[in-house]
């Protein structure tokens, strides 16, 4: 499973789409998490320090939410930079997947949720083409993460 499914052109357009949202990594990362916690409140249970926060406003202001939002975006950014190098891509995805599966025990369905929210945000801010360019990337990320979870016995 070491070949990437994206053509050179798809890689370029995905990077262009990602750059638009990554420019404001902290704000956009925060917006994605706040939407996830608001629309899927069960996802908050994994973050002990977010549990008491109920209002979206409170979450938006939280340094911890902002910090994690930025972290999520930085991880995706690393993957996007290596879309044309499957070994390097897997070198980023694999330890991330293992950590979430074994230490953090995060349900893998949450990766799809977060990717879908990123796609929604892209569409709202930059239109359908932007979203379409990035859709394959989120599918790759989620597929690889799910495979890692299977290897870890989920």
From TrEMBL:
InterPro entries: Globin, Globin-like_sf, Globin/Proto, Globin_lamprey/hagfish. It catalyses: 2 superoxide + 2 H(+) = H2O2 + O2; Fe(III)-heme b-[protein] + nitric oxide + H2O = Fe(II)-heme b-[protein] + nitrite + 2 H(+); Fe(II)-heme b-[protein] + nitric oxide + O2 = Fe(III)-heme b-[protein] + nitrate; H2O2 + AH2 = A + 2 H2O. Residues 5-150 form the Globin domain. The keyword Iron applies. The keyword Electron transport does not apply. It is an enzyme of class 1 (oxidoreductase). Pfam families: Globin (PF00042). Signal peptide: none annotated. Keywords: Heme, Iron, Metal-binding, Oxygen transport, Transport. It comes from the Eukaryota. One of its GO terms (molecular function) is oxygen binding. Its EC number is 1.15.1.1. Involved in oxygen transport from the lung to the various peripheral tissues. Belongs to the globin family. This is superoxide dismutase. It comes from Bombycilla garrulus.
């Amino acid at each position: 499973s070491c070949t990437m499914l994206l053509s050179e052109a798809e890689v370029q357009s995905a990077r262009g789409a990602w750059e638009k949202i990554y420019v404001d990594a902290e704000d956009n990362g925060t917006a994605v998490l706040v939407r996830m916690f608001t629309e899927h409140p069960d996802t908050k249970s994994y973050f002990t320090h977010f549990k008491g926060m109920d209002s979206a406003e409170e979450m938006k202001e939280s340094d911890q939410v902002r910090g994690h939002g930025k972290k999520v975006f930085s991880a995706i950014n690393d993957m996007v930079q290596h879309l044309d190098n499957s070994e390097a891509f897997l070198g980023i995805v694999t330890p991330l997947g293992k950590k979430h599966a074994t230490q953090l025990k995060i349900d893998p369905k949450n990766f799809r949720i977060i990717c879908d929210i990123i796609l929604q945000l892209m569409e709202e801010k930059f239109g359908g083409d932007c979203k379409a360019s990035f859709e394959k990337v989120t599918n790759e990320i989620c597929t690889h993460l799910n495979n890692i979870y299977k290897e870890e016995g989920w």
